């Protein structure tokens, strides 16, 4: 028997042929805009807002850190090495973007001298001598508890889209659905061929952007969850469908990506059908708007029409959901609608400046996707 010939004729299981698209439909038909995204780190700034006072005392030293063009783990590792402690003894509230200027808090476990060995007790960390290119320690405080993912209240964003233009070729009626991972929608050459906006156009667009965004946008998960070119989803499918277990250190990240993708598929189904803000019979409502599933052990909380809709929306991901029920996660819900607070829109020449605040666990790309097609250079 010829093994290679046999392998080419044997069909793969249908589940292994799953198409993992990261394009999700937008909700509005705002003026067709194109803008250059993240031309420099200064164009994407994030401030983490804890939402609670630090206790000023306790076994955890808290550092407020500003970093430029670094991801959270790189800084965490440098802090751990400088302080001579394990990375496991450092906490933080959220993973922040690399290609940006971000300010966030880290907590370092520093027990009292009585709990330390004589060698460690003699060592005092002098943070004034800490040096890492692109990193600055803004302030130091103490707290009674370790900071954990999601502990902070919100993130404040200041984002600039450069050289914003418009043109009929970018009409929403002809454009593909946006990508939740800020995928490039137009080439730089195509962008530069578009006409610039007049001052009157800019004023009208500002008013429409504010009016639309205040109604809320689809609360999609974004880039951080799916990895570069959606690689986390490929690893999730290998694990959940093909039984290829990932390295232990990556499992939490991959599970998070899988749950997020299922949620996005349910939300996308509702957006396509114009019911993402509509409460169906049997929906689970949080305050004003319906919620979507974060899959895990237990039955779906929805009933009747909402339950049937979620089963249809999940579609080919049913096998993912079945496996997610047995990997230590519980069923949870997430709001389908994201509404920015403290929203400001300004023009600086041809550049569009957006400032807004979002709850922890949500993504600025969900806002930007409703404003413009993003061009990276």
Tell me what you see in this structure:
By secondary structure, the protein is α+β, with helices and mostly antiparallel strands. It folds into two domains: 14-42 and 160-338, TruD, insertion domain (Pseudouridine synthase, 2-Layer Sandwich); 52-151, 2-Layer Sandwich (Pseudouridine synthase), CATH 3.30.2350. 27% of the residues lie in helices and 24% in strands. The protein contains eleven helices and 15 strands. The chain has helices at residues 3-9, 72-83, 118-121, 188-192, 199-213, 223-226, 231-240, 251-272, 304-314, 318-324, 364-368; strands at 33-37, 44-49, 60-68, 90-92, 101-109, 135-143, 154-166, 217-218, 285-286, 289-294, 332-335, 337-338, 341-348, 351-359, 373-375. The strands form three sheets. Strands 1, 2, 3, 4, 5, 6, 7, 13, 14 and 15 form a ten-stranded mixed beta sheet that branches. Strand 13 (341-348) and strand 14 form a beta hairpin. Helix 7 (231-240) crosses helix 8 and helix 8 (251-272) crosses helix 9. Residues 1-15 and 168-184 have low confidence and may be disordered.
Instruction: Give the SSE string.
Output: HEEEHEEHEEHHEHHHEEHHEEEEHE
Q: What distance separates the N and C termini?
A: 52 Å
Percent of residues in beta strands: 15-25%
Mean pLDDT: 88
Assign the CATH class of the largest domain. Answer: Alpha Beta
Whole-angstrom Rg: 23 Å
Which spans of ≥5 residues are poorly predicted at pLDDT below 50?
Answer: 1-15, 168-184
CATH topology of the largest domain: Pseudouridine synthase
Give the beta-strand count: 15
What is the number of independent domains? 2
Dominant shape = globular
Number of helices: 11
Structural class call reads alpha+beta
